[in-house]
Known about the structure:
The structure holds two protein chains of two kinds.
Chain A: E1 11-12, H1 15-42, H2 57-68, H3 70-82, H4 88-112, H5 121-124, H6 131-155, H7 158-162, H8 164-175, H9 177-200, E2 212-213, E3 216-217, H10 218-246, H11 253-288, H12 306-324, H13 326-329, H14 332-359, H15 375-398, H16 405-408, H17 419-428, E4 433-434
Antiparallel strand pairs in A: 1-4, 2-3
Helix pairs in contact in A: 1-15, 2-4, 2-14, 3-4, 3-9, 3-10, 4-6, 4-10, 4-15, 6-8, 6-9, 9-10, 10-11, 10-14, 11-12, 12-14
Chain B: E1 11-16, H1 25-33, E2 53-58, E3 68-73, E4 96-98, E5 105-107, H2 117-121, E6 128-129, E7 156-157, H3 163-175, H4 189-193, E8 199-203, H5 210-214, E9 220-221, E10 233-236, H6 240-244
Parallel strand pairs in B: 1-10
Antiparallel strand pairs in B: 1-8, 2-3, 4-5, 6-7, 9-10
Amino acid sequence: xxxxxxxxxxxxxxxxxxxxxxxxxxxxxxxxxxxxxxxxxxxxxxxxxxxxxxxxxxxxxxxxxxxxxxxxxxxxxxxxxxxxxxxxxxxxxxxxxxxxxxxxxxxxxxxxxxxxxxxxxxxxxxxxxxxxxxxxxxxxxxxxxxxxxxxxxxxxxxxxxxxxxxxxxxxxxxxxxxxxxxxxxxxxxxxxxxxxxxxxxxxxxxxxxxxxxxxxxxxxxxxxxxxxxxxxxxxxxxxxxxxxxxxxxxxxxxxxxxxxxxxxxxxxxxxxxxxxxxxxxxxxxxxxxxxxxxxxxxxxxxxxxxxxxxxxxxxxxxxxxxxxxxxxxxxxxxxxxxxxxxxxxxxxxxxxxxxxxxxxxxxxxxxxxxxxxxxxxxxxxxxxxxxxxxxxxxxxxxxxxxxxxxxxxxxxxxxxxxxxxxxxxxxxxxxxxxxxxxxxxxxxxx
Amino acid sequence: xxxxxxxxxxxxxxxxxxxxxxxxxxxxxxxxxxxxxxxxxxxxxxxxxxxxxxxxxxxxxxxxxxxxxxxxxxxxxxxxxxxxxxxxxxxxxxxxxxxxxxxxxxxxxxxxxxxxxxxxxxxxxxxxxxxxxxxxxxxxxxxxxxxxxxxxxxxxxxxxxxxxxxxxxxxxxxxxxxxxxxxxxxxxxxxxxxxxxxxxxxxxxxxxxxxxxxxxxxxxxxxxxxxxxxxxxxxxxxxxxxxxxxxxxxxxxxxxxxxxx
Lengths: 446, 261
């Protein structure tokens, strides 16, 4: 039915399977849309946030998806600036994942603020001292860059590529993509960092506050570093998940291993820096404010020292050591473990830097405050996840995201069927969709 | 940030905890004066708005050594360093500002878009979010103060040191050809409502104001002083455990309360 839209030389699931998947995920998405409308119409009182927890599940999700979307800027940086050309085979997917993550982050912010219609005030009445201002500017600009990086991929759809203007536009955009990749890397460095600075500058919150280098707290650099380390792990993870669901190899192992190796070294250096930061904070910064390390991890029923061990040792050193070892990253199970753990680790890091900061009592006569999100918050958080899955489903089906897919999964030419037979098979929807014979066109992407 | 110039005021408060009985008059007066919204069910204290909130402290000892103290906590109007209050420096839309001429941290309700970063920054929980639109009992809207704007859902609010009273006093002084206002011409609602006279308000820079002398009292301390918030609300207590409760200390640090000057 839609075979004319499917890239040449690849095989896709029957249309009914595709539509069924869209329908199932779409149902959850609609639930999220309903919750989102409740938040807008009835107000944030439908959430379980309160005056102690001004930031909650959404802001965590926001920071987490931005960190995980870091694979886009770092892969782009490696390919276009450092010159790791092999990564061209995964860069499309990294850009798509980044686009999904960043558009999700902007959507979440639109729901999270109390007066969404005044969102533009952050640009109009910008306070140059605020880390959130830097986040807003860099995030918006980088989303623009990601959109520019995503457009050529959309234009490579077989039917769009037939249009001469789109074909040349896509080709020329690829030609200047290095400029956007460099711009994206620059912007990402600052907004990933300024998201780290959001908690790091809070000198009234000893758990989040860090010493500064010039105007930036240490968390500024740690957030950028961790996004560059863990973002590519997420890209690999989503690629592996896609391969598992599609039941075929989409990216050659050497590409995955190269990205895994770079991620491993980034992760190892990050986690060493994080360890030093934690040590200095625990022994110098926090005591100067009257707190011991254990003050932050005792006196409540959830936040214990296990968080620090899980984040640094299990989700930091362990996967880093697996990834930097050739044997480890090339072991099928080892690679899965080594890309899942950093994703958990960086998400956990964002959780503590958003929620634990607020949970800890600062005044000596104050108390710990714990929080459980309402269903509206959960549904609204699932909304961008569902949107992301749907976009991946659509893009995978209709766009040549994986340049190596054809080579890795050659389709044996079936004997030329008569038009009637081909039409009947298509109508029944029992056979997998294969691209229709088409006139060859020059590929637009290098 | 603007530089503080000579002659600029620094309005502040000294609260004598030895006098405070915890009656809550300050909270009631504040709500009435500033049109603070309330709901039928106010049992969820993490969502109810009280610009000044009275905390109950105790020394953690069993009877007969048990002792307790009430501590009213308005916005501390932190100066930080050079006006970089914890909340002011983080607001992305400049919806809250530190006024160098008065030392008052303001909140511009019509500019706030409700990101709540300022609430995350404030260690005193002095900032409140309007989770609901205000709904007044029938007829009560006629009793609202015309000098203070009511706030809509989705914005943050907090104690303003009854800034509208300062504006009124200043206008009166100008009308009478005076450049300065007298100490008693600008007093906050909570100060005037306190039956025990525990709250004293005035210009911390003015040698003739009572707060100038009181802040130098040996019993004086400020909340979370070592964080560098540099607040303008001082507390007085003759009890050492109360003074110690004003800040976090390591076990091996001296138990002597820090003076708050």
